[in-house]
Amino acid sequence: MAEGDSVPGRHLSLSSDEELDPDNIYRCRSHQHTHPIEYYCNDHKEMCCVKEAFDGHRPCKTTKIGELHQLEPELVDLPQAISRTERICFQSVTMKANEKLARENLNRQLQEKIQNIERLKKTIMEQLDAAKEDFQAVAARETKEGTLNKLDHMENISTFLDLSHSVSQGSDVTKKAIISLYLRDKAQEAKQNMFVNFEMEHTRQINMTVNRWLNRALTETTLLTFNSKPMPVSSVQFKLSVSILLRADGRWLNNEPLISGLDFISQQRILAVDNRNYKLILLNADLTIVNVHTFDRAPVDVVVIGNSAVVSIPGYQILEVFDITRDNRIVLKAHLPTISQYSSLCKFDDTSIIGCVLHDKNFIRKVTFCQHMTEIKENILRTPFPAKKFKISEMYCGYDQEINRLIVTDKQNAKVYIHDRSDDSLQTLIEKRKLVSPQGVAIGPFWNTYVCSEQTNSLLQFLPSGELLDVHPLNVKFPHVLRISDDRGKMLISNRRDGQRFLQVYDIVHWPDCISSNSETGKKAITNTGFHIIPLM
User: Fold this and answer.
1) For position 116, what pLDDT does the model report?
2) How many angstroms separate the CA atoms of 264 and 191, rounded?
3) How many domains does the chain divide into?
4) pTM of whole model > 0.85?
5) Cβ within 8 Å of residue 214, ≥6 positions away
6) What is the 3-class SS of 355-383, one letter each residue?
7) Is the pLDDT score of 274 beyond 90?
8) 133-160 as b/e, with b when 16 or more CB fall inside 10 Å?
9) Is the pLDDT of residue 388 over 80?
10) Which of 201, 429, 470, 503 is deepest in the core (most CB within 10 A)?
11) 422, 515: one domain
12) pLDDT given for residue 436 in this prediction
């Protein structure tokens, strides 16, 4: 590579002034903005000039910028890009204001705890001083009134011993007997009073009082905790836009459908896997069926990568890849035998997916697609999840590339496992009587985790910290499939109740007025509204 040429994927960074310069926006960063941008590298996902396309991206697949609106219209959809960027900016502003409030709250808690410690310190010292004075008073009284008098009495007994010696040398047997009996009684009395019989009961009470105060002080000091996390925020509303009752129609579907997998695809279309009728269903935005593909055995899940759809068929131990064309054709692209039986699927990146496999303790796999989605590489993804073998419909997975988090639901144990791959940590979410038979899972706005609780007919919303933020009742029985779009703008839900199976689309509405002014403090405050499900009118 000649001097001055750039390395693909390592473009020069722009300063703030350069980014705002319109001339620089349309010129190649790799060549100091001297060449106009004319090509887009599909492999490195970056724009470049003619020189860079031939020098740095020669082996890559490149497309002229002017032809992208015909070949990949979603990639250059400006209104969608503006909407997505506005949402990200809005989230950034919300989180920044939220973090400021969290810091102010932390400082306030800190000052309150310091004041509590000072008050506790003063109280303890007062108690210790009182205990010291009480102890000294008891000691003075006992030693003066009891023990010293008894010791003085011992001196009187010792003087009687002189008489005893003289009697013992005489011959009077009667006197000797009398003196012996007298000395025996006095010796017994002296033995009982030989040691200081100090009354300690009151002292023990003082010790108990002091220890109680000390234990309380240590306990309160140990339990001082400060919450520096942002306050729970979810400034969105979920508005039910379309809801259909799933029934056999005699044309596409012979039996009542059972949706086991859902995902979004370009042109506001939706893909659904019908496990009961062995179908891959393509629907438009109003949930009208536009095409179907029929399988030989029951499919379980679907995940979209670009304009291709990957379907898991664990009964045949295969993954099938389909191209979904703009004119709504479903074209089988590859029939890929697999080592494992894949059930739930989710997107990992532009060329890979994550799959949950059946009957294997190492149940997480990463599947990488090669050669234009016609070949695969399967690898065990090492996770801290408990080693357990799952059956079909006992687990669902979700992944978010931005925060690098992998989530798996465990239906039988009523748990949700969250693996933060950035630090290899594991969270286990358990909510008794609320999280019952967890099924579909997804990461939504503000990186909150949403889980379908099948037996409580609700959607649980968890903060990134793992704290339960809210429980949202659903108007369907036994919800089990959940998918949120990549732009966090829509949500799909389906259920498994016989005779009452629905497919529903929700619009995720971001409300700018969730950042409201607090009239009392004059500071910005975040309204913790959770989200509201607005019924379809």
Assistant:
1) 81
2) 97
3) 3
4) no
5) 124
6) EEECCCCCCEEEEEEECCCCEEEEEECCC
7) yes
8) eeeeebeeebeeeebeebeeeeeeeeee
9) yes
10) 503
11) yes
12) 94
For residue 158, give the DSSP letter: H
**Domain range for 50:** 17-76
Same domain (yes/no): 439, 462: yes
Residue 14 token pair: 């722009």
* Region class of 513: left (phi > 0), else alpha (psi between -120 and 50), else beta: alpha
* One domain for residues 192 and 286: no
Q: Give the domain CATH number at 395.
A: 2.120.10.30
How long, in residues, is the chain?
537
Residue-wise pLDDT for 516-531, tens only, equals: 333 333 333 333 333 3
Q: What is the 3-state secondary structure (H, E, C) of 477-511?
A: CCEEEEEECCCCCEEEEEECCCCCCEEEEEEEEEC
pLDDT digits (tens, 9 = 90+) for 179-205: 777 777 776 666 555 444 444 444 444
Q: Which residue has the tokens 């290899």?
A: 424
Which H or E element spans position 470? strand 468-473
Q: Specify the amino acid at residue 287.
A: L
Instruction: Let me know if residue 90 belongs to a domain.
Output: no
